[in-house]
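Hey,
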Amino acid sequence: MTSTKHLTATVLVATVLLGAALPVGAADLSQLGLSQSQVDALNAQLTAPAVAPGISFGSPVAFGAGWGQAFFGIGGQTEPKNNPNVDNVDGSASLGMGIGDPYTLVGLEGVVTAISLNNGFGEDGDVSLKLHRVLPGRSGIAIGVDNTTRWGAAKGTKAGTYAAFTKVMDLNGDTARFPVPVAFNIGVGNGRFAKPGSPNDVGVFGSLSVAPWRQVSFIADFDGRDANAGISVVPFPRVPMIVTLGAIHLGQRYNTDTEFAGGLGYLFSF
């Protein structure tokens, strides 16, 4: 179950903390001498959900956790019915946190993952690291390494490195009362991002997401091997929790079946 963990981590890493400020009335803001468009823009920010919905479904993104942020997630996927070596459904769990400040210098995110919930929880797993920086214009860059430390069955996998760039923009302009964010993500890496059987080769991955509502996004993703598609939802606006569901291995490349996958992530601030 080495592929499931990447979906779990993706649900979490794509979480961008927007803040948990209480709504402020437009009348109160207008007393500051702001124009109506400025009032609308501020109200949209101040009443935004505690977290944004996910922006990728299999590919790493350039945004990550910094100091004061930690997260937990659980994810899973169905397995091919003709595979006698695994259960029809399995999952993984991840725990991560950040150090540093990606806005002023760099942030370092670390994630510890147990790669199976069925077969001896915690007996197999790995550690992944990501160094990331937020850039002007709602964008960011990151370099990371998957499986840098491995134990149990995960020892059979190789570590992989990657670099990613992520950009967020508003489809209907940054002055709209309720902007529609679009996130574009692209990167290169080896290991799980390369063709199976050639872990030292370099593959290209990327994703595109659009959030027509502030608590919902639709995602198209290519993780370097397979196409994936999903929907990400923030069920409760004041709770920093994300649920992402979708299909992976679309197109059934490399003799893989299309499977259902999903994950739940929760962000802690301290």
